Structures are given as structure tokens and as C-alpha cells.
Amino acid sequence: MRRRLSTRLGIVSRQSVVLACLCAAKLVVTHAQSPQAPAPIVRDQVVRDQVVLDRVVAVVNNQAILTSDIDDEIRLSVLDPVRGGMGVLTRTRALDQLIGRALIQQQMRQEDTEAAEPSQEEVDRRLLEIRKELPACVRENCSTDSGWSAFLSAHELTPTLVETYLRHRLEILRFIETRFRQGINISPEEIGDYYKNTLLPQYAKGETAPPLEQVSARIQEILLQQRVNVMFDDWLGNLRKQGDIEVLDPALEAPAPQAPPAQSKSNNNGGN
């Protein structure tokens, strides 16, 4: 009953807020960048006797995003619990995530949010949860050291990269919670409306629904997260509009949104 109830309520962990907003929860270490205009080639990587040029593919307020950042983002997507069933992360989508993350991290630096930094204990605890609960990890027995090492090797990841991913993810989650959650009040009427109009209809005739008193705290959490998500989306949208964002690789530019089809004259005039 507890599992079924959680499913009906749509309960998710706090970590899923960013992954609902940013698809994160998908954070990687960014390379040190110069505030000057980036050079087309940042570094060389020798792979199998071939030189692979790591180049700048986008600039966000003078912060460079590299080809290797996109590669890391795609590899780390295997650790994202909400990507199941979403298919492979494309390079265009990975770049869009990195742009959004760069804007958030820049804003965090401006606001000097040192309190958002997670402790090593929090990072270690989250890593343990991933190794024990992430479906991809469960299948590959990541709870053991040998299984975890094999998992990292299979996905071309390193312990340092994964730890940085988790640290940045927790940092942004805490920033979002602190910045947007405070001051949000969910009234008893809103909880009652959700219970009556959203939860109860999910129970078939003859099934016994839990009393409101039993699920009110969980409903309040859902409504809080929904409100935070809306506020966060609006805030990030404004950062994108105000920021200086340049995609240097045309192949990675997101397609322009399609304009809605023009209504016919008869539709605009109520069919008259």
C-alpha cells in the first residue's frame, strides 16, 4: 500500500526537483575559463595515437563551454534517475543543460551562496544511494567495489568526475530550495482540493483511499515542489533572456520554436 500510495501521490525525492526543471539533476565540473574571448582550440587530447581537438562550442557570459563538457554531460546522464525511458541524451540537449547550469552557477557566485555548499558526508551519502538504488547500478551490482569500478569503466567515468557531479548537483538543489521555497505557504484549502480533485479520482470504485490526515503532509510537499518548479522555470527563463549566450557550433543550435498556425478568419470571428 505504501508503494502504491507514493506512486499515486507522485512523490519524488528532493533531488528530483532539478531533474524536473533541468532534466537534476546533471552537473559536471567546469573547466577553468578565462574571462577573455576564448580561443578556438583550448587543449589537445591524445587518444589512440590521434589528436582530438577540444574546442569551445558555446560562450555564456564570457564562460566557455567545451566539447569535452558535452561529452562528460552525456556520459554522466547514466547517473540521472529520471532519464529512464527518455532515450539517449543528444548533444544539442546536453549543451542546453550546460548553458542553463552555467547561468545558475554564475548567479550563485554573484549572490555568494556559500551556505549551499554540501559537506563531504552529504556527497558520500548521495553516492551510496546511487550505488544501491539507481536501476543501472543495481543491474551491474554497483554496491560492491568491484561492481562500481566496472560500472565506471564501462561508462568512461572516474570517481572524481562522479563526485564533482554529485557535489554540484546538491549545491544547486540547496540553492533552489533556499531561494525559492522560503515564503511559500500552502493553505489547508489547497491541500483539500488536491486530495479531492487529484488523489481520490486515482482510486477505482471499491478501493479504499487513505484519509486526508494521513497524506496531508505528502500533498503539501507535492504542492510546494510544484510552486518551486514554476518559480524556478520563470527565473531561469529570465536569466536566459538577459544573458549573453553564443553558440559557436551551428550543429548544436536548438531549433527555433514553431509558431502556432494562424487561425482562419472564420475562427477569429467566431465562425461568422
Task: Give the topology string: H per helix, E per strand.
Answer: HHEEEHHHHHHHHEH
Number of strands: 4
The CATH class of the largest domain is identified as: Mainly Alpha
Apparent shape: globular
Helix content estimate? 40-55%
Biggest β-sheet strands, sense, barrel: 4 strands, antiparallel
CATH architecture of the largest domain: Orthogonal Bundle
Please work out how many helical segments DSSP would assign.
11
Quote the CATH topology of the largest domain: Triger factor/SurA peptide-binding fold
Q: What class, by secondary structure content? A: alpha+beta
The number of domains is 2
Give the quaternary arrangement of the chains.
single chain
How much is the radius of gyration in Å? 22 Å
Separation of the first and last Cα atoms: 55 Å
Instruction: Name the beta content range.
Output: 5-15%
Are there runs of 5+ residues with pLDDT below 50, and where? Answer: 11-48, 264-272
Arithmetic mean of pLDDT: 78
CATH superfamily of the largest domain: Porin chaperone SurA, peptide-binding domain
